[in-house]
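INFO worker-7 received task bundle
INFO bundle size: 2
INFO processing item 0
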Amino acid sequence: MRVGGQAEEGGDRVPCLAPGLDPTALPLSPREGYLLSRVDGRTPWALLRQIGGLPPEEIDRCLERWLKEGVLELAGRGALGCTDAATQAGQAPPPPEPAGTVDLDPSLDIDLELQKELIALASDRERPYHEVLGVARDADAKTIKRAYFQKSKRYHPDRYFRKKLGPFEPLVELCFKRLLEAYELLSDPATRAEVQRTEASAAGPSLQRLSSAEASKRLRRRLGRLTGPQRAIAERKRKAKSFFESGMSAFREERWLEAAGSVRLAIAFDPHNQAYREAFAGVQRRAHEERAQQLIRQGEAALEMRDYREAFEHFQDAFHYRPFDAELAYRAARLAWQASDDLRAAKELAAAAAELEPERADYRRLLGQIYAAAGLRANARRELEAALRLDPRDKEARRALRGL
């Protein structure tokens, strides 16, 4: 499977409008409308990259998306037009394959199922945020948080420190950025509203089929009526730029949480600006670390006051921001089990700690004790025996095993 943008070596292929398509029914920005008006069935891809009025990489993305959605068709190499080429071949020509290949490799320190997930997510750059998280479009904040918590344990780059990832190393980083971006924009009500407004616009009405001549005529008329939408788009971009500059100023002054909030809003108002999206992951990581440290301090203070339920909630939230911290998960799990009697949360946290550091006997023992408390005797025995293999002197694990 290929991952990446349109290869310039395929630039002599010629895109054209799909037969009978009404381009005025498409939710186009002014610049996208201009690019689509240049697609005439004779101009090759490489030339469109030069005259399309957008950066070449953005033109590639637009053309690839329109091919995928059936807005465009693609001729083969040579002089045949789109319709003739497709007819002669007996079928529609395939869309261009993106450059760069990543193959599954069982020798790497990353399971094949996750390799497939990473390839799929990296390849589908237009996937909506709720699909990145694997939740429904109308999912509530709790569901979004839980989905991020589960996926971040798999995608977080720190989990694979010093492991053999081969070509999947940059994909892990890329997919975690996508996951983090999706979570942050959907968990904030203000940015979620902007994201959903953008997605609703992109969905557009159902497409009407027209003759090629009528399609071109309608597109030219629509381009002449874009002054109003241009002003609205320009205003959104102006707001996005202002938010981004404010965020970068806060970042330079190490006000991480403020910086993250501003950059998040910049992306919501101008979601196709790659500079904003590239900056976001670094800003948000610093913000997450600051928030985790705050929560840990609050948890420690609650422990001193013997408020174990509050301490658990703070440590659990801190682990949400540091999903690679096994010791933090372990501490939260102990509090969930012993102080709050929340066996479900205790099991999830203890399992996360044991998964992150499977050679820690105390983590496996705690997980076994929680399974025993939940009445899951077979699971409890498995984990307690594993703890004793790792540390035969663990009296607490031996006592718990005898009690089964």
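INFO item 0 finished
INFO processing item 1
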Amino acid sequence: MEASLRSVATRQEPVDEGTLQEALKCLNWSRSDLDDELPPSKAYAGAWHLILAVRDPATLLQLDYQFDPLRTMMEREGLTTLQLVWREQDDLFHSRNPFPVGGILEDPATGAAAAALGGYLRDAQLVEVPFEFQVRQGEAIGMPSLIKVEVPPDGGIVVSGVAREL
């Protein structure tokens, strides 16, 4: 069964350097791991997500983070997940979403984070709208998902995907 949702209006704000450095430390990453074309940002589409894009897909694949320190930082900053992405093509992102505030290591499919990513790309003028892209998530944990994202010129972001019963 395919499901779609439209987010609330999106917004973004810069992530302060201290929070960024703390997140990178929890992820065991460095600033040089990040993709300069997609600057770090906090993005909102109903919940706040920290968006960090990496240069190398291996960085994403080898994710091994410090659960408790990351949860503490996320709770303090009001973040739901970290939207960690690698852009394979203009319209295809690979994502991992640490979710320690939810009590689990990683969410295999995060529509809210995909919507926040779409809003970030539009609001930061990193894409021409309307724009569509896909997010592949959950592959590294054996639960692959594909989220389709439609980014209109304004308003909410539409995310779609196929759901399965557990």
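INFO item 1 finished
INFO post-check item 1: The first helix runs from residue 17 to 27.
INFO post-check item 1: Strands lie at 2-6, 11-13, 41-44, 48-53, 79-89, 92-99, 104-107, 131-137, 145-151, 158-162.
INFO worker-7 idle
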